Amino acid sequence: xxxxxxxxxxxxxxxxxxxxxxxxxxxxxxxxxxxxxxxxxxxxxxxxxxxxxxxxxxxxxxxxxxxxxxxxxxxxxxxxxxxxxxxxxxxxxxxxxxxxxxxxxxxxxxxxxxxxxxxxxxxxxxxxxxxxxxxxxxxxxxxxxxxxxxxxxxxxxxxxxxxxxxxxxxxxxxxxxxxxxxxxxxxxxxxxxxxxxxxxxxxxxxxxxxxxxxxxxxxxxxxxxxxxxxxxx
Length: 233
Description:
Blueprint (H helix, E strand, L loop, with lengths): L10 E3 L11 H15 L3 H10 L1 H5 L6 H12 L5 H20 L4 H10 L4 E5 L3 H6 L11 E4 H4 L7 H10 L7 E4 L5 H7 L3 E4 L19 E2 L5 H5 L3
Parallel strand pairs: 1-2, 1-4, 2-3, 4-5, 5-6
Helix pairs in contact: 1-2, 1-5, 2-4, 4-5
């Protein structure tokens, strides 16, 4: 088994599919149907346009959650009241908070790593839901740096996505870990800058994986808590 650098100067984490579930289909479908109902549009039509604009949202080009919903409504040729838009936005954010709340398994480990003196960073291809929940959700309080595609306009595996938090934390890539599930070809990008890559997949989180990496990680773990054991091996 390859040995990760110990102790790591920092650990970089992916978000969806790693720290929290990657859009469970039933809950995702329910949230989409609720939003469509609030807006008074067909759920199928809304989902189709919302899906088509996925990469636009992930690169931050549609703006925040409300603006992203408005972009879909514009394509559908529909106007809604400010109150309907507010309620639809809140329903989308409620779904995101539901996902962030599912970090029961990962949060204790993140806290233990942080308490041991290891800086943590989040490197995620995500939309503005994460940004809009950042200051209010405890999941994000453990991170000392972040690299979010919606803010930077660039997706993984671009090497700069990893170099930016490494630079902020003032650490060397060769002495750090990257933990992800393999979406967005993230291991390819992480390894290019010299990070030791570790694969961890949230159970049941493979339904919405985008551009899965065909390159395997340096190490695969079955339980998130194994990260703590790796510090001792």
